[in-house]
Each structure stands twice: as C-alpha cells, then as structure tokens.
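Run Mobile element protein through structure prediction, thanks.
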Amino acid sequence: MSGEDWLEVQRAVAAGQTQEAAAQAVGVNERTLQRLLRRAGGIRRPPRVRSTLRLSVEEREEVAA
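Sure, done. The structure for Mobile element protein is below.
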C-alpha cells in the first residue's frame, strides 16, 4: 500500500467511514487493512479542542480565591 493510499485510509476512517469502505476505496481486503492498522498502531486521533465554556487555569484560580 502506497503512502498516498495510507493517507486516504486515514482520512476515510477519521471521516466516519467503515474500515470495509476504506479498504475497498484503496483496493485491499478488509482483513489486510485491519492488520496494517494494528501494525501501525491505529489511526491518529484529531487533536482535542477544549470547549469555550471551560474556564482557563487563571479563571479557576480567580474563582477559588
């Protein structure tokens, strides 16, 4: 599987597609894709973004004081 195919799989799975659909998109068997994902440690999660409703450290300290 090429690097380009791997990026396509990562994007597809991150976008909510099933592993089966992602495997078909790059022309490999679903079991092959699962094996490759296991070896690679899975799909990288998107970075977490804190809600704007959460207080910052400074704001929490101010409230506690």
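The CA atoms of residues 15 and 62 lie 39 Å apart.
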